[in-house]
Fold this sequence. Notes:
Elements: H1 16-37, E1 46-50, H2 56-63, E2 67-72, E3 85-88, E4 101-107, H3 116-125, E5 127-139, E6 146-148, H4 154-169, H5 183-189, E7 193-200, E8 203-205, H6 209-227, H7 232-241, E9 248-250, E10 253-260
Parallel strand pairs: 1-2, 1-4, 2-3, 4-5
Antiparallel strand pairs: 5-10, 6-9, 7-10, 8-9
The structure holds S-adenosylmethionine (SAM).
Amino acid sequence: MTLPAARYAFDNDDPAAIDRHRCLSDMLDGHTTARLSTLGALAGRRCLELGAGGGSIAGWLARQGAHVLATDLNVRHLPTDAGYRVLRHDLVTEPLPPGEWDVIHARLLLLHLPQREEILRRLAGALAPGGALVLEEFATTFRNAVLVAPGPGDAAAYDRYLDTLVERVLPAHGNDPAWARRVHAAMVEAGLADVDTEVFARSWAGGTAGALLNAANIAQQRAGLRAAGLTDALLDRVTALMSDPRMVIRSHLVYSTIGRRR
Ligand SMILES: C[S@@+](CC[C@H](N)C(=O)[O-])C[C@H]1O[C@@H](n2cnc3c(N)ncnc32)[C@H](O)[C@@H]1O
């Protein structure tokens, strides 16, 4: 079945994209690089970094001595002098860059793309023998994310924003809140071996990256959130809470799944 093209929700041309990439890097790079480090020495290995965003992981791979190709639908935040090659590439409509890859990594990408199952099979087929596919995705189906809030109604305001974003606004752009939990099975079905999943989450106080990511979400998707019924007053309140250190939230669970080609 051919699915209609859905428009990616957080286009890199938006001014909020710079904050988004900084927050994602601060939140997740430590975990991602620890996972990539389990693959062994990366020097000399051919690495494909898909949906590379701000390029922090492509840069880290290059600093390990890997030969890195970083791709994105919109490459405007990828420096061209950071030790890796940059390619504008649409993972949905274009064939994969030619070649066999020792490591293919994509973080927070396939969850946005309705064609995710078919793309995963293509990625598995592009691995060199022994190569690793590393997919990292938010699972946004888990609730009770507020750990402590400064005042009455603050937790409910955050919950309302988050429910609206992940259940209504993002799915209208092709996002699947439950995809993260299916990646492991999809890799097994694609014939990959030694499939392994690690799940990561932690607390983020207002003013830190995991909270400020929500301020970037609201800045970029305010029109969609309003169309889904949220008021400017609620969105302004949640934005302010994301800078208030008395407000502490748990981030989405990150499923990091690695599978290897036999
Ligand atoms: C949520 S950001 C994640 C960026 C980076 N992977 C990270 O985790 O920090 C998703 C990225 O995927 C890119 N993207 C969206 N749709 C794409 C597509 N069809 N092909 C390639 N990249 C795409 C976006 O432009 C954006 O840079």
